[in-house]
Amino acid sequence: MLTDRRRLGVLVLAGGGIALLLWYLAPWAVPHRLFGGEGVLLNPFGHHLPEGTLPQGYRDGWLFAVFYLSLAWLLLTLLAPWTKAPTKALYALGLLGLGLFLLGYVLFQQSVAQVNAPLERPLLRRYSLGLGSYATLGYSLYLLLLARVFSPGGLAFLVRRRGVVVPLFSLLLATLIGGVIVAILRESPALPQDLRHALLLKLDLITYTYQLLFSPLVNPSGFLQSLLLATPLIFTGLAVALGFRGGLFNIGAPGQLILGAIAAMLVGVYLPGPRWLVLPLAILAAALAGGLWGALPGWLKARFGAHEVINTIMLNYIAASLFLFLISANEYKFFGSTLYLPFKYPGYEARSHEIRPEARIPHWTDLVAPGGELSFALPLALLLGVAGYLLARRSLGHRVLFGLLGAGIGYVVGGLLPGPQVSFGPDLTSVRLNGAFLLALLALLFFHFYVFRTVGGYELRAMGLAPKAAEYGGVLAGRKVVLIMFLAGALAGLAATHYVLGGGIDEYRLKQALPYSVGFDGIAVALMGQNTPVGVGLAAWLFGILLTGGLQVNLQLGISRELVAVLQALVVLFIAAGGFLPRYFTDPLRAAEVELKAEAARRGAEEAKEVRR
Description:
Layout: H1 2-25, E1 29-33, E2 39-43, E3 47-49, H2 61-79, H3 86-116, E4 128-129, H4 131-149, H5 154-160, H6 162-185, H7 195-213, H8 220-245, H9 253-270, H10 275-304, H11 308-328, E5 331-334, E6 337-340, H12 364-368, H13 377-391, H14 396-416, H15 426-429, H16 436-453, H17 455-465, H18 467-472, H19 477-501, H20 518-528, H21 533-557, H22 562-576, H23 588-612
Antiparallel strand pairs: 1-2, 1-4, 2-3, 5-6
């Protein structure tokens, strides 16, 4: 017990020392920032940059009050490991630290609002908390983590959730290294007076960079843009994750996306009919084309043993060539004869004819407020669908049936309810988010139900974990390989609906600018999401946030948007290395040993309690 207290004390002391150092070196708040990064940096140790400049009427007394409270709190945390119940004390002090951070945030916002109240466009206010304040938040979370780890069974709790721990720790490491890269590549906006001033400027620059990167979380148009960029990544991430679950490496998502785009274009341009028929057929065509293109390397592996990585890479090139062949020109000469194709739109640009209005996926404003009137159809359908699924206590089929029935009733009833008139600003209507995002959410649900709730999904996971054992258990390996690759290809093909049917590339057409490279980005999404539907959805959204915020970083700080690609690569690299965490976070056998030891310790504690009674 004494050894654990010493270890806990050392860890708390190390974390507290880092927090105190950041309090001294980093700004706590920036009440005024100019375009480009220069600003007034507040630190409780008495330094403002530029020297002596504060916004007129601004009062910084709140900073010193919060600082003295934080200092007293830090001293209490250093004593916590030596109390009678150290973990409970750390829990309480961690929550108290979160309260201090929120107090500083509220007081800072109030102090800035007094100065900037006359501004007509509050979204252009350039003020924010600094790394010193975020150090309080980080140290609080660190104390809560230590309290959980040193609680009975705490380590086993984290090991059981290693699918979350490893990506988060990898993201933290990538963020730290990305900060070092920013500090090296970008010069400080002002000349430092001494070493401390230089560190103050550099730390503020790093903090502001990441605030811009994650600014879509607090900006409505940026939030919608991040969902727009996340939509195709969800499809391609699921396509790769499904292959991983089945023991296959589907690197052919780009080609499968291209075939899905071609099929969606053919149906959307050349098939006449009502919207209720043409739009579902166009979506289905995209899924079938991508699925058949994915099933081809699956059949080659099942029939001849050809490796799926090589086959899918080669098929990517074939799909890209076929794509350009169809929309680059309408006339080709073969051995003296001329072949005429009807797919290319007249003009120099390689693009198809426009998708018919009946085959277009609605814009997000048309889904939320058709005709400018707020619709309750979608939220009520979602609410009743979830309620129907949860209330059905029978088999999975009954749950899905009741969920779909509830969603249908909610959609019809919600469409009949009158709603208020709403109007969206040009910054929101210009975002090309469309109904393909809802298809992506349905794809996440399909992945979850099929992989984790059906017999076929169980067989798929068995193939991925132990193919020989799965065959011995009766799984038809060849058929299963073809089916896995078909479903993975169908998911990748559905990503094309966002670009072609939803107008995700500025027009409702198939264009040469089709960004099929998102198929490769799906590998990073699947790895960070640990091949789970929730993980893939969150990882895709994170990448969408970074890509959206990267534009702001480039505009305001002149830092290349390639910083986002560097962060993505670092995350994947660290995940492949297990986040440099102990082996029991990456080795299932060692993880089982940790859990068994925790269970034995829990039983021993219960037996000791019984003896004392």
